[in-house]
Amino acid sequence: MGSAKERKELDYMDFLQGVGVEKGDIIDVSSDMANVLLYCRRIGVRLVPDHLIDSLQELVGPEGTVMIRTFTWDFCHGEPFDIRTSPSRVGALGNAAMKRADFKRTGHPIYSWMVWGKRAGELLQMDQPSAFGPGSVFDFLDINHAKQLTLGNTSSDSTTQMHHVEAACKVPYRFDKPFTGEYTDYSGNTCLKTYSMHVRPLNLKVTNTEVDRDERGKELEKRGIMKVKHLDEMTLVSTILLHELTEFLTEDMYQNEGKFTVSINDLPGYVAAGIKPEELKFYAE
Fold this sequence. Notes:
The protein is of the alpha/beta class. The protein has one domain (22-279). The chain has nine helices and 13 strands. The chain has a seven-stranded mixed β-sheet with strand order 4-5-2-1-6-11-10. A three-stranded mixed β-sheet has the order 3-7-8, with no helix packed on it. Helix 7 packs across helix 9. It is globular, with a radius of gyration of 19 Å.
């Protein structure tokens, strides 16, 4: 197969085409780069993460916005957060973006993104303590009809947006829990700050099982909310329309007992927790 230097590079634009990303789009990029690297090895090409990021920028153009996930839950466990150096726990692509001067990190110490493009300044100014509530980045993704672009697995495997819907519906099986810790900003200033995320009571097993994801994925494709591109017998590139996903999951919560959204105590939907649909309330009400 030849050494890495001898092999040609992946055709990034060809790799990214075909799932409906257009110029001017806001894309929320999630990735499993191990699967992307496996694909590259199978077809005998090499991958340069910086060049993939360059291609994401080219894909949406100067009117678009690229958001690469750098989520980390260390802050929830008492670890200090440094916006400049705290590593992403959700993939190597975010850590590669952290080394670039043209990307900056959004401020929430649990759910953050490296961002570039037209809406980056707006995203960088957000300082909503709640990870999923009104005014959060997840709320922004919904309101602004962003697209989740997933590389290396299907979008239905990583639909963190569902927690925004759960927060919006004020589900009784999750609650907003504050976490306080040391927070260091881009200027190197450190202080104590408090942020929150939606957590579950410890007596409930709240999961997103393989069955949930498989059935949800089929339904999202059927409704045209998700597009999937299969390469080398692998699902490697997919997109999901986040506003439409929010509407779908909200409908699921109110009309289908949340059976596409969540499993509780290994049973589909929220009925396993003794919750009735009428107990749900939308935060805008």
